[in-house]
Write a structure and sequence with these properties.
668 residues; alpha/beta; Immunoglobulin-like; 5-stranded antiparallel beta sheet; 16 helices; 30 strands; 22% strand; elongated
C-alpha cells in the first residue's frame, strides 16, 4: 500500500511515538482511517493467508474473532471473519443499536475472503454479531466462529472478551508428561457439567457456576482417586439436549456456568490436585442453527456442498468440508486452542468412525466412493493425521483419544507407521462383550466364556481405553446396576465384580458419573445424579469399592506399566469354564510387582481353590470385592494363603485360596 500524502487523514499504525504492540509483532503494516467508525487495520501477514488457505495454520485464534488491540493509542477491538462469498460484512451490537450498516468491515484484496477492521472504543463484554450479505443477496446474522465467549442460550450473540490469566499450575505442567504417559495409570471420570449436581435438581434451568462446581467436584474426584476427568463438550452449544455435541462455539466454554476465566480456574484447581483434564471435542459435525456455521455466508462455507458427504443422517447436522484448507485450519486451531490457552491435557475426539467412512449410516445410492473406489473419506483421514501430528509436535505431554467403533486399522498407531496417530482408542468391542456377559444369569455364563475372554485376542492391535460411558446409561439401556442379574445383593456383587475386572484389565479406564455409586435411574441431562442414594450402605459402599479400585490401580505398577504391550498380561487359568472361574496375571517391569486376579463369576463359594502359577512362593490378598466395607458378606477372605512348590525347575506353585460368591480376589 502506498504511503499516505500529507493532506489525508490516514496515519500509519507505526507512526513515531505511536507504535503499537501489534504492529511490532507483524510485518504487514496497514493504515487506519481515524475518520471512519471502522479503521482499516490488519493483523495478518502474507504467510498467515497462505497457511490458512492450505490448511496449515494452526493458531488462527491469535488472528480471527474479536480481540482487544490498541491502535494509535486508542483502545478497541479488532474483528476478523472469513466469509469468502460475502458481498459485505458489518459488525452490529448494542454499541450501534444493532445497525446493519454503520460498521462495515474491509475485505482483504488478496482473495482470501477475510473481512477485518478495528473498531475504536469497543469494550470488553460487548455483545455482537456479523451481518453478512452473501450469495444471491442472502442476509444472515451470524455469531463469531472464533468468539472466546458467547451469550447464554437462548440468546445467540458473541461477546468481546480477553483471555488473560495468571496460571498457578506450573507444578502440574512441569510433570504432566509423567501423568499423561501411556505407561501411567489412567482412570477417567466422565462428567456432564450441568447434571452432575444442580442447585435445584427439578429445574433444568438451574445451574451451578464453574466456581461452585469446582468447589464440589474437585474434592470429590480427588477423594475418589481418579487420575483424570473428562468433560462432555464444554464448547458453546445452543441446545441442552445435544449434551454439547452440536456446537456453535469452537473456541468458547459455555456461558451456562460462567466466563472463560472461571473455567480456566476449574482446570487449574484440578491440576493443583494432580488430576488431568480431558475435553470431548467434536470435529465431525455441527448444527444448522441460524447463528452458527451452516451456510455461513449464504453458501456452504464450512460444510460439504454435496449433501451425500455434507449432511449427517443420524444427527440431522452438517459435516465439515475437510478438503477445504480454511476449514482444516479452523478445526486444528480449535483443538490446539484448548491445549494452548486452557492447559487441557488431552482431547477425546467424538464420532471418528463417521468421519472416516463415506458410507457411514448410508445405504447404496446415498454415498459416492472416493477416487480409488473405496469408502474412506480421504481428506478426513488426512485431516485426522495432521491433527494428531500437530498436537503431539506442539504438546508432546498430552494425549488424543478416539471414539472409533469400527475395525479401522491403526487408529492409535503413529502416522509414520501408517496409522491415524491417536494416543488411545475407545475399546467398544470390550464394552459390548463385557456388558453382554454380565447381563447373563450366572447359570448361563459358562457357555459364553469366549465372549468374556475375546478382548485379549485383539487387544494389542491398538492402545485401548475401556469405556463405560454416558452412552451406556441412556435411551432405555438402563443404569449399570440394573444391567446386573439377580436380587439386590447379587446386582451389587456383580457390579463390584465387573468393576474389578475393568480396573485389572489392561488399558485405560473410563467410568461415567453416577456409575461409581450405582445410580438407579438412567442419566437425565435435565436433572442431577441421585446423590440421595449415598444414604444407603449398598450404594455408598459400592462407591468405596470404586475408590479402592482406583487406589489399587495407582499403587500397583503391574496394572499400568505394561498396559499396552504383550508383556503386561498372561492368562493363568481359562480351563474351569463350568465353574466360571477365570485367573490372569498382570505383570509389571519387576517380577515382584506381578499380581494375580481371580474372578468367580457365579454365586457359589469355593473354598480351598487350587491355582497353579509360576513365580514366588509367597502371596497375599491385596483386594477382595466381597469385603463388608464394600457391602459384601465379608465371610470369604484370605488372611493367610498356603502355597506348595510342585515343580522346582519351573518354580510352579500350587496356591490355595478361598473364592467368594460373585467375587474378585487380587493377590500379590
Amino acid at each position: 500500500m502506498p504511503a499516505p500524502n500529507k493532506t489525508d487523514n490516514k496515519t500509519p499504525a507505526h507512526a513515531e511515538g505511536k507504535e503499537s504492540n501489534t504492529a511490532k509483532r507483524y510485518e504487514d503494516i496497514h493504515f487506519v482511517d481515524s475518520t471512519k467508525p471502522v479503521w482499516n487495520y490488519s493483523l495478518f501477514r502474507g504467510e498467515d493467508i497462505s497457511n490458512f488457505q492450505q490448511g496449515t495454520h494452526y493458531h488462527l485464534y491469535d488472528l480471527f474473532g474479536s480481540r482487544p488491540e490498541s491502535v494509535l493509542d486508542t483502545d478497541g477491538y479488532y474483528f476478523a471473519v472469513w466469509a469468502p462469498n460475502a458481498t459485505s460484512v458489518t459488525v452490529k451490537g448494542n454499541f450501534n443499536d444493532w445497525n446493519n450498516e454503520s460498521h462495515p468491515l474491509y475485505v482483504r484484496l488478496d482473495h482470501s475472503g477475510i473481512w477485518e477492521g478495528f473498531i475504536p472504543g469497543i469494550k470488553k463484554g460487548e455483545v455482537y454479531k456479523y451481518h453478512i450479505r452473501g450469495y444471491k443477496g442472502s442476509k444472515q446474522d451470524k455469531g463469531d466462529p472464533f468468539a472466546w465467549f458467547w451469550e447464554k442460550r437462548p440468546n445467540t450473540a458473541s461477546i468481546t472478551w480477553e483471555l488473560g490469566k495468571e496460571w498457578s499450575d506450573k507444578e502440574w505442567m512441569s510433570v504432566r508428561k509423567k501423568h499423561n504417559a501411556l505407561d501411567a495409570p489412567w482412570s477417567i471420570y466422565e462428567v456432564h457439567l450441568a447434571s452432575w449436581m444442580r442447585p435445584d435438581k427439578n429445574d433444568e434451568e438451574s445451574y451451578n457456576t464453574y466456581d461452585q462446581i469446582t468447589d464440589r467436584l474437585v474434592p470429590y474426584v480427588k477423594e475418589m482417586g481418579f487420575t483424570h476427568i473428562e468433560f462432555m463438550p464444554v464448547m458453546e452449544h445452543p441446545f441442552d439436549g445435544s449434551w454439547g455435541y452440536q456446537g456453535t462455539g469452537y473456541f468458547a466454554p459455555t456461558s451456562r456456568f460462567g466466563d472463560p476465566q472461571s473455567f480456566m480456574h476449574m482446570v487449574e484447581r484440578l491440576h493443583q490436585e494432580g488430576i488431568g483434564v480431558i475435553l470431548d471435542w467434536v470435529p465431525s459435525h455441527f448444527p444448522y442453527d441460524a447463528h452458527g456455521l451452516f451456510m455461513f455466508d449464504g453458501t456452504h462455507t464450512y460444510e460439504y456442498a454435496d449433501m451425500r458427504k455434507g449432511f449427517h443422517p443420524d444427527w440431522n447436522s452438517y459435516i465439515f468440508n475437510y478438503k477445504r484448507g480454511e476449514v482444516k485450519s479452523f478445526l486444528i486451531s480449535s483443538a490446539r486452542y484448548w491445549l494452548d490457552k486452557y492447559h487441557i491435557d488431552g482431547i477425546r475426539v467424538d464420532a471418528v468412525s463417521s468421519m472416516l467412512k463415506l458410507n457411514y449410516s448410508r445405504t447404496t445410492g446415498q454415498w459416492e466412493p472416493n477416487e480409488y473406489g473405496g469408502d474412506g473419506n480421504i481428506e478426513a483421514i488426512a485431516f485426522i493425521k495432521d491433527l494428531n501430528e500437530t498436537i503431539y509436535r506442539d504438546f508432546p505431554d498430552v494425549q488424543t483419544i478416539a471414539e472409533e467403533a469400527t475395525d479401522w486399522p491403526g487408529v492409535s498407531r503413529p502416522t509414520f507407521e501408517g496409522g491415524l496417530g491417536f494416543g488411545m482408542k475407545w475399546m467398544m468391542g470390550w464394552m459390548h462383550d463385557t456388558l453382554d456377559y454380565f447381563k447373563l444369569d450366572p447359570v448361563y455364563r459358562k457357555y459364553h466364556q469366549d465372549k468374556f475372554s475375546f478382548s485379549m485376542m485383539y487387544f494389542y492391535d491398538e492402545n485401548f481405553m475401556l469405556p463405560l460411558s454416558h452412552d451406556e446409561v441412556v435411551h432405555g439401556k438402563s443404569p449399570m446396576i440394573y444391567k446386573m442379574p439377580g436380587d439386590d445383593w447379587q446386582k451389587f456383587a456383580n457390579l463390584r465384580l465387573l468393576y474389578t475386572y475393568m480396573f485389572t484389565h489392561p488399558g485405560g479406564k473410563l467410568l461415567f458419573m453416577g456409575d461409581e455409586f450405582g445410580q438407579t435411574s438412567e442419566w437425565n441431562y435435565k436433572s442431577e445424579l441421585d446423590w440421595h442414594l449415598l444414604e444407603y450402605d449398598s450404594h455408598n459402599l459400592l462407591r468405596t469399592c470404586v475408590r479402592d479400585l482406583n487406589k489399587l490401580l495407582r499403587n500397583e505398577p503391574a496394572l499400568y506399566e505394561n498396559q499396552f504391550n504383550i508383556y503386561g498380561f498372561e492368562w493363568v487359568d481359562l480351563n474351569h469354564r463350568d465353574q466360571c472361574i477365570v485367573v490372569y496375571r498382570r505383570k509389571g517391569k519387576k517380577p515382584e510387582d506381578d499380581v494375580l486376579v481371580i474372578l468367580n463369576l457365579t454365586p457359589v463359594v469355593h473354598n480351598d481353590w487350587k491355582i497353579f502359577a509360576a513365580g514366588k512362593g509367597s502371596w497375599k490378598e491385596i483386594f477382595n470385592s466381597d469385603e463388608r466395607k464394600y457391602w459384601g458378606t465379608g465371610d470369604v477372605l484370605n488372611p493367610d494363603i498356603t502355597t506348595t512348590l510342585v515343580d522346582k525347575q519351573s518354580r510352579m506353585f500350587e496356591i490355595n485360596v478361598h473364592l467368594p460368591a460373585l467375587g474378585a480376589v487380587v493377590l500379590k
